[in-house]
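ZP: hey, is the adenosine monophosphate complex queued? I don't see it on the tracker
AM: it wasn't, my bad. submitting now with these inputs:
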Amino acid sequence: MTIPFNRWPEELAAGYREKGYWIDVPLTDILSRHAKSDRCAVIEGERHFSYRELEQAATRLAGALQRQGLTTGDTALVQLGNVAELYIVFFALLKIGVAPVNALFSHQKTELEAYASQITPKLLIADREHALFRDDDYLMTLVARFPSLNTAILRGDSGERSLEGLIAAPEDNFVATPSAADEVAFFQLSGGSTGTPKLIPRTHNDYYYSIRRSVEICRFDENTRFLCAIPAAHNYAMSSPGSLGVFYGEGCVVLAADPSANLCFPLIERHQVDVAALVPPAVSLWLQAIREWGNNGQLASLRLLQVGGARLPEALARRIPAEIGCQLQQVFGMAEGLVNYTALDDDDEHIFTTQGRPMCPDDEVWAADEEGNPVAAGEVGRLMTRGPYTFRGYYLSPEANAKAFDANGFYCSGDLIVIDEQGYIKVVGREKDQINRGGEKIAAEEIENLLHRHEAVLHAALVSMEDELMGEKSCAFIVARSPVRPVALRRWLRELGVADYKLPDKVEIVDELPLTHVGKPDKKRLRQLIAERRLTTK
Ligand code: AMP
Ligand code: DBH
């Protein structure tokens, strides 16, 4: 059985192979190439895992899952935080050809169920530390709602059927059955701009290339000690070069539960971390901490700070070398594929003021005008791209794909960009109906749909509002049928089960929504209203 997805046209695929981008090797190779290595692969709290241990743990779990009947072409819903088991599970599933969705740990019922209904998973792997899985109530609900789910495994349970138990199970002549390299390896999460969170099928070939090329550009090797303090399941943290890039190079991943300076500075010092990946708000917090207490030499080993996920203001960028004492690399990527980096040997001007260049010579990237024609260099347009690691369609979403792709298979990311004569890209705005809350993406329509389910809500529109720390926060404008308090709406959304970062930071009750000439809420006007009314979240 194979998982359906939109394939690259044959001619392009042949070219990608010829040029060595696609090497027809499954992602399991990232770990198994170091199977005999006793170097440290992962540090999480007091736990250390060598490559040999990680590979053996993944193999034992794969064997146990295989004995339970899971097989190539099946899918799994996985929700693990920044813990070593995230990688053990990921590689175990790849070994038996089961394609996971790695939900973020911040995700709640709404997101988990949206993913489950798209992939009809046979397997659920979740964590007792997550509020939803503290007892069995929600687990039972999920299993009842999704009859395909015939195996549920919990981290933090005891006994041989727990995740820990299965990882410890004795190995018996396991034979790996990964899916073919040009088939779906797993699903990546889209930040989304529509009502339901969409899934991105990633093949072994395209993802492995993205990782190898990232490693090359960022010069990761066996001496790399990488701090992963952003959600480890996120595409950025996994592949740009992320943990998988570190594993490919035989370096060491140091996991942190969050990017706070309190937690991260001591970890950097203790484990002599030399590279970290952050989103812009975390950079602000690190800089603030340094201004308040100095860094007491704790960051001396840090050589490179990657920053991406959301726009990095130039003023903040310039403070990084000056105050943190390391080099900055801007990363502009997307779970859909395309990744841009500033190069380590770029001049300061490009590093501080651009989001870098596409990493692959065969990334085709251009900026389109309203009619879909290329604009001149230096002009603003919508980002259009295709290439050896950029997907060709969301999973089972023909309607969304008809809008997101042009006739030649170019994906329109919804970003407004300027490309200069040398190919450097600046992200200057966004056209998609999304809020980028410090790197965490919120699809306005998803939250508006949920708000509309509240009995007091007649109309709802979610827009971004500027925020000094987060870059953007979200503001919900509500036309109410009956009196309703903002806090009550937020509480109601939380109870419905939506990730905290998607809860409106501000709720503004209005008499009516301004409309565009086609009768849709005029979000430009609403954003002006935020300024006129001086709305803040403080
Ligand atoms: P996602 O679809 O969730 O993977 O999010 C990808 C989106 O994040 C991009 O399309 C951009 O809108 C945004 N993004 C990522 N990195 C950057 C960056 N360095 N600067 C500005 N926006 C970024
Ligand atoms: O925001 C992102 O999705 C992102 C940012 C940087 C990403 O997917 C990536 C690098 O790979």
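AM: back. The mean pLDDT is 97.
ZP: great, adding it to the tracker
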